[in-house]
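tl;dr need the bound structure. longer version: we got a ligand (nicotinamide-adenine-dinucleotide) that a collaborator sent over and nobodys looked at where it sits. i said id run it. heres the input, straight from their email, havent touched it
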Amino acid sequence: MKRLTIQIRVRRESYDVEVGSGLLVNSRPLSLETPTGRCLIVSNRKVFGLYGQKLLGKLGELGIEPGVYLIGDGERFKSLRTVEAIVRSMSDAKLGRDGCVIALGGGVVGDVAGFAASVHLRGVRLIQIPTTLLAMIDSSVGGKTGVNTVHGKNMIGTFYQPAHVLIDTDVLATLPQREITAGLCEAIKHGALAGPDLFERTTKVLDSNSQDRRLTEVDGLEDLIINQLRFKASIVAADAKEDPAGCGAASRKILNFGHTFGHALEKSTKYKVFKHGEAVGWGMLFAAELSKKLELADNTVVELLNDVVRRSGSLPPIGSTNVRPEDILDAIRFDKKSAGEDTQWILLRAIGQPVIVPQSEVPSNLLRSVLKDFVRHRSNS
Ligand SMILES: NC(=O)c1ccc[n+]([C@@H]2O[C@H](COP(=O)([O-])OP(=O)(O)OC[C@H]3O[C@@H](n4cnc5c(N)ncnc54)[C@H](O)[C@@H]3O)[C@@H](O)[C@H]2O)c1
Ligand SMILES: [Zn+2]
């Protein structure tokens, strides 16, 4: 069994992320963080059905008998209503300040359980056990928790770092192909922002998905996950709470590459058509197109990103949704207006060279025409 560990530093605190195959069964990492108080596993029926017994067995060895709370499966359960139910269940389980929440699942479970952990009694210990590729490389680290509201994605949330993150790559064996594509899109995002080294490492695993090879059989998967996490950790360490005034390449805002369009696409299709990562896949291609039209980047970047996103798997066509360019534009405006912010576009000059461009520097007729072309073109393909 190969096990890699990295330490994520955020301000004066740090936590370990362990990555390896079989960790859920063979490891003793949870003992490192064994809480003295009670423990609640938050998961959903599907993931708990697959991996719950393993986790219960491991905790049993450590003398821990946790409570279990299962939330509904899907983005629509990333809501305040779910948080309220989790917090109620923590109180029912008499989970005190020395207690611990274990999030076992993808980004939805992690975001919502993390939020609940951060507000229950003003914060109890949180252990993330991500089970999707996206959650492994992205959402389980960095400390952003949150839920969606009618005003948009992640409108309510906290910055709350986990105490420990445990990544058992074996669980990827049961992950559906679309979820792998979604995770690969976020991995491509990190690669495109970080530079040629991470970009190339990431593109090497892409073809395994299209060739129907199991991701768990890909050589160097643990290394890739670690390198992805190192990049995310470096950005988080420099700007843990995403300073609203940040405007340089070290700002945490750059991690929103592909997300302005992506979130709007998710929202205007009522979260029913696209997985989050798939919407980010389209969002990166849109951002690349906009970068070209603003003469920040040349066509090579657009072609390169189109090639790698295509190789990650097929994305649901935008045309299949009847979404109109105006719907996307409205969703972008509404999202940001509700947050009292101006839209900022994360664009690329080249791989590894992100740039933050305020909406005021993007002529509205140009944005409209790029959107129109993009939606029409992607409808026909
Ligand atoms: N907090 C952050 O920094 C951050 C970063 C990126 C994304 N996110 C959020 O993460 C969410 C998306 O996360 P996601 O892509 O993991 O989606 P998800 O949590 O909905 O999981 C995707 C699907 O895979 C299933 N699943 C999970 N693990 C499985 C496994 N091992 N085998 C089989 N099925 C499994 C789930 O039940 C679900 O149906 C979005 O809400 C997004 O906003 C947060
Ligand atoms: Zn994302």
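gonna send this back to them w/ a short note. The chain is about 50% helix and 20% strand.
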